[in-house]
Design goal:
Blueprint lengths: L1 H20 L6 E2 L7 H7 L6 H4 L2 H4 L1 H7 L7 E5 L7 H8 L4 E7 L8 H14 L2 H4 L3 E5 L12 E7 L2 H7 L2 H11 E12 L7 H7 L4 H11 L2 E6 L29 H7 L4 E7 L2
Parallel strand pairs: 1-7, 2-3, 2-5, 3-4, 5-6
Antiparallel strand pairs: 6-8, 7-8
Length: 280
């Protein structure tokens, strides 16, 4: 009788223990998102620089933007778009019903690296072509105190191969907080960056330009984001992430001896993580 009485109690205790031990659900694995025909058209547009088009096999723009859920009626902020590789696709795609915002280093701030002034001037000239880029605009910001627009004004924030720079500068927390602030509730943060092997130490990440997924996820979650999904769209299994001059050894930077050119061309561009976060 005593044993019969104990069995139900033990079952309850074991059920509670199992419930507590049950692992939290992992972020969902990405499925291939359908690509909007208008996005395909933007990628195929004759207005794109032919040199940029040559990099499509490594950057997978249509698939990447579809994974991030970019839609033509959204306000999309791209962080430091550099020479405008994604600008050529995003601004025309968004011009009729959405808003493209290029977040650029403020050229009014003195004593910055010269490339920032050149990029700012080039972006202003590019976006002046309203026939191609519509009402796309620039949001200048101070890298020491980043702000990307009015709070809750953006549907999507995108950053491509930038986070390693912020980690090296010690400003990553400020950037991710600013992304969170500018996004609407339910908004998306899309991150693509060079991927280090799990367990790589911080100093190695800073010198190599490769970051672990764990570090990027930690930065985003610290700012308030939830990891929604991962994608292997921009993966490259040939990249060992261990090169003499870090990621800059590989194309397109190609900081290597001319005699090694064929070796690094065979590897191609870096192995990259593609992560989608959501602001709750």
């Amino acid at each position: 009788m005593l044993l019969a009485a104990l069995v139900p109690a033990l079952l309850v205790v074991n059920a509670d223990a199992l419930a507590q031990a049950k692992p939290k659900p992992a972020p969902k694995a990405a499925t291939t998102a359908a690509v909007d025909p208008a996005l395909k058209a933007a990628v195929a547009a004759s207005t794109r620089d032919p040199k940029n088009v040559l990099r499509d096999p490594y950057r997978h723009p249509a698939e990447t933007l579809a994974f991030f859920g970019v839609k033509p009626g959204q306000t999309v902020v791209e962080i430091t778009p550099g020479g405008g590789w994604y600008t050529e696709i995003l601004a025309p795609y968004l011009k009729d019903g959405g808003q493209y915002v290029a977040a650029m280093y403020d050229p009014a701030i003195p004593n910055q690296p010269q490339y920032r002034y050149r990029q700012s001037e080039a972006m202003a000239k590019r976006l002046a072509d309203a026939a191609v880029y519509g009402k796309a605009k620039v949001q200048n910001f101070d890298p020491k105190a980043p702000n990307f627009g009015p709070a809750g004004s953006a549907d999507v924030v995108l950053t491509f191969r930038n986070a390693h720079n912020w980690v090296d500068d010690g400003t990553a927390d400020a950037y991710f907080k600013a992304f969170f602030d500018v996004l609407k509730p339910g908004g998306t943060l899309g991150v693509v960056d060079h991927r280090a092997k799990p367990g790589t130490d911080l100093e190695k990440m800073k010198t190599s330009g490769y970051l672990t997924e764990a570090l990027v996820i930690e930065l985003a979650q610290k700012a308030g984001f939830k990891l929604d999904a991962k994608s292997e769209i921009n993966a490259n299994a040939k990249d060992t992430a261990d090169h003499p001059k870090g990621v800059w050894t590989l194309p397109p930077t190609n900081q290597h001896e001319a005699t090694d050119d064929a070796k690094y061309k065979a590897i191609g561009e870096s192995d990259r993580m593609t992560l989608r976060f959501v602001k709750p």
